[in-house]
């Protein structure tokens, strides 16, 4: 039967507040185990401490590098169910609390990644104990980081250390360990991963971290130009995410800047695809990104004459085309696969992370619900499919106007949908594009009929949108008045 006395294992690099923590546990009748300097501090404070060498048989080896990496110690952390009872019957401890504070790897920020001093700041025993405790959270409180010790003590004093509390502490521990490991990984990558001079602005420090196995930009071959910047990676990622939806068809070219497409085009050749993309906006692509789903050949390179680009991305480059591009000293040339990224999307917010699955779904227009009197023609269905693929890569509110060859006008990120539509039309008109018979894609529903009215005025003859507005009937009626065919996908594609 389990002894009523509760047991804690404490190992802290940062000794601030350690005495109060230990005294508080001791006053509650807890038995405390510790090693090395942690045990010394608590003994000086008058706290009864059992040293881990009673259990492991060693005080330390390798000059102090190994103190807690021992099967008996970790058995006391990880034991659950019947194993806990068996250890107690054998007179061995089982821990109800593991309180650990890691070595201060943050001190290595400005240190040489290959120096011995840097390596010595990498904690092994602490994270190992903390992980074990977090895994066994049904029985063990995992208190990671000395800053949390007072909170944990107060929770125990108040009798609130229930399963919900322990599970939350376990989650916290794994989060801290992952952040700790990332700091170590970034330090060791210095001189291996590409160097970023700064972030979005010169006063912001930045780094790029590639996951393993190397995929996407981590596997890219830089065939020309200098290293990519922070903003280059953002823009290139936006371009590739759109191109990925066209990777299995005819050649497609995406021109992107500031995280949005300036134009997207398809054609029988890469050069034709580029011209179909460039027609939508002949101004914004300067200083932008070009992503091509097929090999870049000399015909495409010739079309790029006089156009300044930051990056050209493609799965392959013809030898003569590559040689010509490499004459542009400042042009980054990346050879890499164009494919969808299936990894979870992470975005930082103040005090946390937003995590979501990637938006990999693309509805097919002909399989969606036609809600108007007129049904789209075969050519309109083809154009709607293209526009629908593009619009999910445009920041909301998003409007894409185009035909079966590509975009004619793109409206990006305006506070209202009608403003985005107006922007798409104005850009198309500026470039001299005739929108008569064009199609339109909207990433979310039209809240009012002013959208279809404006589209009809511009010459649009077919619309694809999610549907779902309380005014859908009003919007459908407007389309019927104008002879516009409209398809509801039943799915939206916001991109913020």
Give structural notes:
The protein has 496 residues and is an alpha/beta fold. The protein has 3 domains: 7-189, Methylglyoxal synthase-like domain (Rossmann fold), CATH 3.40.50.1380; 216-335, 3-Layer(aba) Sandwich (Cytidine Deaminase, domain 2); 361-488, Cytidine Deaminase, domain 2 (3-Layer(aba) Sandwich), CATH 3.40.140. It has 17 helices and 19 strands. The chain has helices at 18-27, 36-44, 53-56, 71-78, 82-89, 116-120, 125-135, 149-157, 163-189, 230-243, 270-278, 298-303, 319-325, 378-391, 417-430, 450-458, 472-482, and strands spanning 7-12, 31-34, 49-51, 97-101, 141-144, 221-224, 252-257, 260-266, 288-292, 309-314, 332-335, 345-349, 352-356, 369-370, 399-403, 406-411, 439-442, 462-465, 485-488. The strands form 4 sheets. A 6-stranded mixed β-sheet has the order 6-11-10-9-7-8. A hairpin with a 2-residue loop joins strand 12 and strand 13. The two termini are 56 Å apart.
């Amino acid at each position: 039967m389990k002894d009523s006395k509760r047991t804690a294992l404490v190992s802290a690099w940062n000794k601030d507040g350690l005495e109060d923590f230990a005294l508080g546990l001791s006053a509650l009748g807890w038995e405390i185990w510790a090693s090395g300097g942690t045990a010394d501090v608590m003994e000086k404070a008058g706290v009864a401490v059992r040293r881990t060498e009673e259990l492991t048989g060693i005080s330390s080896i390798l000059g102090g590098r190994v103190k807690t990496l021992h099967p008996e110690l970790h058995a006391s952390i990880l034991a659950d169910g019947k194993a806990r009872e068996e250890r107690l019957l054998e007179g061995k401890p089982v821990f109800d609390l593991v309180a650990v504070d890691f070595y201060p790897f943050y001190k290595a920020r400005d240190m040489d990644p290959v120096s011995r001093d840097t390596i010595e700041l990498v904690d092994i025993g602490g994270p190992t104990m903390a992980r074990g405790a977090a895994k066994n959270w049904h029985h063990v409180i995992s208190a990671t980081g000395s800053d949390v010790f007072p909170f944990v003590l107060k929770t125990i004093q108040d009798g609130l250390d229930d399963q919900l509390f322990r599970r939350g502490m376990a989650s916290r521990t794994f989060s801290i360990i992952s952040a700790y490991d990332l700091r170590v990984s970034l330090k060791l990558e210095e001189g291996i991963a590409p160097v970023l001079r700064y972030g979005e602005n010169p006063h912001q420090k930045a780094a790029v971290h590639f996951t393993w196995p190397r995929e996407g930009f981590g596997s890219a071959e830089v065939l020309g130009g200098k290293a990519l910047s922070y903003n280059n990676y953002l823009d290139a990622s936006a371009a590739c995410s759109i191109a990925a939806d066209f990777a299995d068809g005819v050649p497609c070219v995406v021109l992107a800047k500031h995280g949005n497409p300036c134009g997207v085009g398809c054609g029988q050749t890469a050069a034709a695809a580029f011209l179909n993309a460039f027609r939508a906006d002949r101004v914004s692509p300067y200083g932008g990104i070009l992503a091509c789903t097929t090999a870049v050949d000399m015909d495409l390179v010739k079309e790029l004459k006089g156009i300044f680009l930051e990056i050209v991305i493609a799965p392959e480059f013809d030898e003569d085309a590559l040689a010509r591009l490499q004459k542009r000293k400042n042009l980054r040339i990346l050879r890499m696969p164009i494919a969808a990224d299936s990894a979870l999307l992470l975005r930082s917010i103040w005090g946390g992370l937003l995590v979501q699955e990637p938006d990999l779904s693309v509805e097919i227009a002909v399989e969606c619900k036609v809600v108007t009197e007129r049904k789209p023609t075969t050519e309109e269905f083809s154009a709607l499919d293209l526009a629908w693929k593009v619009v999910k890569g445009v920041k909301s509110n998003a409007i894409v106007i185009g035909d079966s060859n590509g975009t004619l006008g793109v409206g990006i990120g305006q506070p209202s949908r009608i403003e985005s539509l107006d922007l798409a039309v104005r850009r198309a008109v500026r470039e001299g594009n005739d929108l008569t018979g064009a199609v339109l894609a909207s990433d979310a529903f039209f809240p009012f009929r002013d959208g279809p009215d404006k589209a009809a005025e511009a010459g649009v003859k077919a619309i694809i949108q999610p549907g779902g507005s309380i005014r859908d009937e009003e919007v459908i009626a407007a389309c019927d008045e104008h002879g516009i065919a409209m398809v509801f996908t039943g799915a939206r594609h916001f991109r913020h």
